[in-house]
Design a protein that fits this description.
The protein has about 100 residues and is mainly α. It contains 3 helices and no strands. It has a domain of about 55 residues. Helix 2 packs across helix 3.
Length: about 100
């Protein structure tokens, strides 16, 4: 009789632990969710790391090359050098 009671108690504990493992907030579902979040964050970190490498290469280029600085100033700031003439071409006006 005592063995049956002990076996029943152990079986009940086993079922409760299994239920907690499969259904509770800190079981397999949470582990799966956290794994997905880790994968997502790793992808984001890789993307940002690549962007940082591109920006670092651009900074090195700007520090070491006057041509890169001039090119950037012309493109971003509209720099016109000495003895240069700036022309603006526009579409012709419609007749009317």
């Amino acid at each position: 009789m005592a063995i049956r009671v002990a076996t029943g108690v152990l079986a009940l504990l086993f079922c409760l632990l299994q239920f907690r493992l499969w259904v509770s907030d800190d079981g397999f579902a949470e582990a799966s969710r956290l794994t997905a979040l880790i994968t997502q964050q790793t992808d984001e970190n890789n993307r940002l790391n690549q962007r940082n490498q591109r920006l670092e290469a651009e900074v090195v280029d700007l520090r070491n090359s006057e041509g890169a600085v001039e090119e950037r100033a012309r493109a971003d700031l509209g720099l016109i050098g000495p003895n240069e003439t700036f022309y603006i071409f526009s579409a012709p006006r419609p007749a009317g």
